[in-house]
Amino acid sequence: MKTIGIERKGKDRMADTASRQNRFTGALVRMRSLNVFIIFIILFVVFSVFSPGHRFISRENMKVFLSAGAEFNIVAIVVGMLMIAGEFDLSVGSILVFSSWNFYVLYNAGVHVLAALILVLCIGGIVGFINGIITVKARIPSFITTLGTMLLWRGVTLLWSGGIQAGMDLEQNPVMYKAFTGVIGDLIPAQFLWFLAIAFAIALVLHFHKFGNWIFTTGDNRMAARAMGINTDRIKIVCFIVVGAAVAFVAMMQMFRASTFSSRAGDGWELSAIAAAVVGGTALTGGVGSMMGVFWGALVISIIENGLIFMRINYWWTFTVFGVIIVSTAIISKYLEKRRIMMGAERT
Amino acid sequence: MDDQKSAETQGATADTAGNGTPLVKMVGIEKWFGKVCALRNINFHVGHGEVVGLVGDNGAGKSTLIKVLSGFHLADKGDIYFEGNMIHYSSPKDAKRLGIETVYQEQALAPHVSISRNVFMGREPTKALGFMNRKMMDEESMGAITRLGLRIKDPEAPVEALSGGQRQGVAIARVLYFKAKLVILDEPTIALSVKESQQVLDFTQQLRAQGISVIFITHNIFHVFQVATRFFILSHGEALTDVKKEDTNIDHLIELIVSGRKEKA
Question: Whole-model pTM?
Fold first, then answer.
């Protein structure tokens, strides 16, 4: 980093070097998403080079990474938004399996696939609404609320389904099947495009819409937001609803891909999603985060999950690696944050 | 009764510049919390373009008086007039609508959010479909901050990058931009260094220069003596004095505060 400045003769050389160096480190410090992007690229290169037979970079695996990964990434995106509003959702994995089961039941009962899809989206939204209303009206930390609903919805699904795994013939709906599992140019799966579209839409709202400003200020200083007339309870409830509906959407996307209902779907996603958001620079305390950061954070988590399989090492290593990555990014994040504040103070 | 009379005569003199009535007038305000009398027969007014130093120890009733004025508490007795019209609050929003804005120390800003987003928090100017007009937000927020005499370069910088004095400036710029007629500064200097406190005093002067009336709440008479045009001293829920700056001096005020006894007018 010290050689970033271009060597030049003259007495302003030192100042010039310093300012260039500042600009580079400055960009690193200010743009959290850039850091996460660099981590992603490093992981990508490491997996490509070191996976036996370079199978990680194969077309087949890229399709798997982009499609299966996209499902988790969408969940991470909405969880990131909710965390910016200052709340958690530990029940995303359970909402996912509950939505899957609802879709399975409706579809097998002969409900038109589109109607089933819309119904399940609504159920997802209602489940999210329940999380939200309990959290804001009963003034219970969402950590506790959603810990409860996590157990509740998975329990309900297991009881009702009998813990089965069952095939479905979703290929019979060509249009929908294509919309969820099609592949463009034999490389880009439809799931990935859905991920891009949802990430883009949420980024637009979060960073450019006034509702996004309300989300940030609600998460950052709820009292201030309320004093300025923002209905912070409503903001939080809406975020919970969006999480519920998005997770239901992912549940169905997953069933189209796998053509199965599995009562283990979404297991463990609640913590991976929070990890993705944190790796992407989202604060656990709310009010801090960016969609770009969460976007790359989600990709980092899903690339680890995918890449380690090809490294021919025990799958259980993923947990260990997650642990190390999460803790180290949290430490780096804290350090960068301090630097950023100092620089901000300099600028003014 | 003496107090009331003197308050009224002073009100009349302070308003000669305005339209004849004070901006805000509170008459015979009384407030009880259970069996505790927080305010006892308070007559308080703020004229156009005045800076009133509301001074008193902790528990003197400063906050209660201000909360009654800004609609958070309802008075048990007494009337409030704004520009000569009696007002009945149903919520703090009513006070805002009239142009009475309170700047609190801790509740004002979201620290991790940018300056311009803080200034327009909850009142964002929008283009189509509710998308924020960020260019306008940046320009207008910087404009309001500059009008206060504060120099900040980057409207996108997070508030936590600012010093305590600058933060107060941002919070005050917000009420300035939204055309407040009366700004209540609640202990604006309490956590600030000497230099930062001076900055807040400068902001207060600027507000006054823009024709905005200010109530400056503090328990430190030294902080407010420089900028206030009138002093209203509370002790145990009662008014000790209501005196214009030219009719008093700092030693006299300190004596009053320390003794905690009413002035013999």
Answer: 0.84
